[in-house]
Design brief:
Layout lengths: L1 H24 L3 E6 L2 E3 L2 E11 L2 E5 L5 E6 L6 E2 L4 E5 L2 H29 L5 H26 L2 E3 L4 E6 L6 E2 L6 E5 L4 E7 H5 L4 E8 L6 E8 L8 E8 L12 E9 L6 E4 L5 E3 L3 E7 L5 E5 L1 E5 L5 E5 L7 E4 L10 E3 L13
Parallel strand pairs: 1-24
Antiparallel strand pairs: 1-23, 2-17, 3-12, 3-16, 4-11, 5-7, 5-10, 6-9, 7-8, 9-11, 12-15, 13-14, 13-16, 14-15, 17-22, 18-19, 19-20, 21-22
Helix pairs in contact: 2-3
Length: 353
């Protein structure tokens, strides 16, 4: 009998608590808010472009001589450090050997004079002259060794041999261009744009190009504009590829350059979730705008389709700074005070309600 009385009391307490809670919250509805997303209005303009190598380098020996051997042909791909050509180095080797012998002899003399100078058998002036002569001879030896090393020509960068200007057994002077090397470590795309597009360059958002035989769009990075127009009143645009494309892109290839431009003339477009839109019989599509006093107001909007993410695109009625109701739109009244639910309920997975 005692247990039954306790159970009845607990049940009655629960009913009273639920009754008080229902009475307290019955006049205020709970809502979930969201912020509209302002969409960037863009347009794309296309121009023909051409791929070219970043640089064309003329390669030659740093010393004069007779060409002994050429190790590459036109069209060959070379890597940095590859041996390209050699000069006849017989005379240079003899010069190094002669100076080396002379340097060793003078060095031995300076070593003996150093011991004598330590014994104070010779004057400091004589010793300093000998040391200076040894240093001067060492410099001459280093110059001869450098000239011997200059008889070998190496590739300074990766690239293609575009042209070979001489043949073995021919004489060349220092600095004479033996090869023309195409630097393909960074390919560029050049396109000409008219004046009206050049004036809008501050609104260029993104660049890409399309090439025959290459799938998809190739993202590009802006290198710069030529600020001077040519005879056709066109301005040169220079772009580079964001990724190294190996042999997919070659110099001289024609491409189509795409420029994504921010469209400042189009109307402001705002994306909102589809669940925020409801239809009023007299005003058409509307949303509920949440005010600072926790009161919602009905706001008619102008729709312009759906974006790629399935959101409604609004082109009129909103500024993008409002807070609008996401959940509970079909049970609200204009001017009604609401309560904002900060966290999504555990039973509303994904915030779909």
């Amino acid at each position: 009998m005692m247990k039954r009385s306790v159970t009845l009391l607990v049940f009655a307490g629960v009913l009273c608590a639920c009754g008080n809670l229902s009475h307290e919250d019955s006049g205020i509805r709970s809502v979930v808010l969201t912020k509209p997303v302002v969409l960037d209005s863009v347009c794309v303009v296309n121009y023909p472009g051409i791929v070219r190598e970043a640089h064309t380098i003329s390669l030659g020996f740093k010393t004069a001589g007779q060409i002994e051997c050429i190790h590459v042909r036109e069209g060959d791909y070379v890597r940095k450090g590859d041996l390209l050509a050699e000069l006849d180095d017989a005379d240079y080797r003899l010069g190094v050997e002669a100076l080396q012998i002379q340097y060793n002899q003078v060095k031995d003399e300076v070593d003996r004079m150093e011991r004598l100078f330590g014994q104070k058998s010779i004057s400091a002036n004589d010793y300093e002259k000998a040391v200076a002569g040894l240093k001067q001879l060492g410099v001459q030896l280093q110059v001869s060794e450098n000239k011997l090393a200059y008889t070998r020509l190496y590739a300074p960068i990766n690239g293609y041999i575009q042209r070979v200007n001489f043949s073995p057994a021919e004489m060349v002077d220092a600095g004479t261009a033996l090869f023309t090397l195409l630097d393909v470590s960074q390919m560029e795309v050049v396109a000409d744009i008219p004046l009206n597009e050049y004036k809008q360059r501050d609104y260029f958002i993104r660049y890409y190009c399309k090439a025959a035989g290459v799938v998809g769009e190739l993202p590009m990075t802006l290198l710069g504009f030529t600020p001077k127009a040519d005879g056709n009143q066109l301005y040169q645009l220079r772009l580079t590829f964001e990724e190294y494309l190996d042999e997919q892109i070659t110099a001289g290839m024609n491409v189509e350059v795409g420029i994504v431009v921010k469209d400042t003339a189009s109307a402001l477009k705002i994306a909102v979730p589809m669940c925020t839109i409801f239809r009023d019989y007299s005003q058409g599509p509307c949303v509920w705008v949440f005010g600072q006093d926790s009161v919602v107001s009905k706001q008619p909007v102008v729709l312009d389709g759906i974006d790629d993410e399935g959101r409604a695109v609004v082109v009129g009625g909103l500024t993008g700074k409002e807070c609008i109701v996401r959940a509970g739109v079909h049970v609200l009244r204009d001017g009604e005070r609401v309560r904002v639910v900060e966290k999504t309920s555990k039973t509303n997975v994904g915030g779909l309600l």
